[in-house]
Amino acid sequence: MSTSAPEVETAPDSEHVEILAGTFRLLGDPTRLRVLLTCLDGPVPVGEIARRTGASQPLVSHHLRLLRGARLVRGERRQRQVFYATADAHIRDMLVDMLAHADEPQDDDDVHR
What we know:
Largest sheet: 3 strands, antiparallel
CATH topology of the domain at 28-97: Arc Repressor Mutant, subunit A
Strand content: 5-15%
Helix content: 40-55%
Structural class: alpha+beta
Number of strands: 3
Strand order of the largest sheet: 1-3-2
Order of helices and strands: HHEHHEEH
């Protein structure tokens, strides 16, 4: 069961490749990835993200600053709390697709290992 990816009309320029590489580096940290995945259910307050991930609130805030800087999450202030959610449908779809990919059984005939 293979679905084809959309075709890229032109090769991405180096600036776009660097942005993508930086994004994937950010997502390579398990705690940061857990924080981002928690925001899929967003908007979620920082304290709730900390509770769900098991990370301290200062650590969650640090990761959220990095994720916000990379445009992966957006924050919305409500009185004294900031609520976070994934920045847009592209980020949400990418994460949902990657979770689905991780759930797929591994093909024993995969020649690309």
